[in-house]
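Predict the structure of Glycerate kinase.
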Amino acid sequence: MSFTFADEDRLARTPAHELALSCLTAGIEAATPRTAVDRTVSLEGGQLVVLPTGRSPGQRYDLDAYDDVYVLGGGNAAAHLASALEDVLGERISGGVVVTDDPTPTEHVDVLPGDHPVPSERGVESTRRLLDTAAHAEENDLVLAGFTGGGSALLPAPAGDLMLSDLQETTDVLLASGATIDEINAVRKHCSAIKGGRLARRVAPATVVGLVISDVIGDDLSVIASGPLAPDPTSYGDALAVLDRYDVDVPAAVRSHLQRGRDGEFAETPRSDDPAFERVDTHVLASGTDALDAARDVAEERGYNGVILSARVRGEASEAAKTHVAIAEECRATGNPISPPAVFLSGGETTVTLGDDHGAGGPNQEFALSAACELDESGIVVASVDTDGIDGTTDAAGAIVDAETVDPGKGLAALDRNDASPLLDEAGALIRTGASGTNVNDLRVLVVEERS
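Done. Here is the predicted structure for Glycerate kinase.
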């Protein structure tokens, strides 16, 4: 894959801007399913080989021991993952279903539509077909289950008497509440017939090989796509506690469903000792760490000191930006913690707590705008994107800024309204990519030049 940004020539208006964009490009490309599969998955004779990645052990699977091989999955990059697996296994794949909002051609696997970040009716129908296919897998079959970021919204399967509208409204209010992805997914899992390990129950007793592109801090398998194949450590009571903690107003049907589950009317999501997991192995093929490593390599190849601050940044986007800018300014002023020219990198997932009368934007645009308001001199460029190409509910992945991008007074006013997108668009600072083909959370780059 060769990845480019829209209006790249305009965005790369200085060498520092161009370097920031090059780091973003390298990071996104390193975390695509195609690159991850090429790096970790191969066919040796009749064996499927999954190499160790540092995040999960490797394993070999004798394909001659199975009657059929199916591919199932969901997420922003699920079709790209299925396509890469087809290139490895070819005719050995009997069929399958993946659900995504970023389709790509496949020969053996059906690519079905869904929507992100709010679930849709077509996502419900596509997920139903996926579950039907999963139920046909038998004991002597092998299921390759590929999940990537975005799977939680793309795979809606309302549990019990819940309706899609209940899930949509609940997703909307949770995304606006400032809740973490772990907390949001605790609620989603207990309103779903596929999440929280329930797909593992549906596909048992087939052998399952989970192949995951991680978009969560710490690569927690129970959180990625809300853990369709993973034991769930949360409960109905935990889900109710999230609603109370953030004082969110969800549909009465959702609260009733969770209360009935807490009271024992519904089976809990499966725990680690559930027999559904006896024949499930899951491998993390790529994560935000791969994106950060590749971005740092580009910086160092250009003669810059590359520093990965953290792959686990979280909290309010506008506040996280202030800390990042402070580190960059300290570097330029004093040579601490490293001498310029330098590139500081971070990943993770920041959040935005929306007011009642909010505008347009997303965490990466808020991060960039807050950084632009903090910068008081030239020589520092800040870029921040969501690696899936969709920041919030806008058509932008993020933004690239410096001290001259916006008037700080206007920027702070826009941040107060959670309305970063229009101001950044007016300044020509928005980064637009379209669907990137992957999703490994946020990627931030701060380029610090030497003083003249």
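The longest helix spans residues 317-334.
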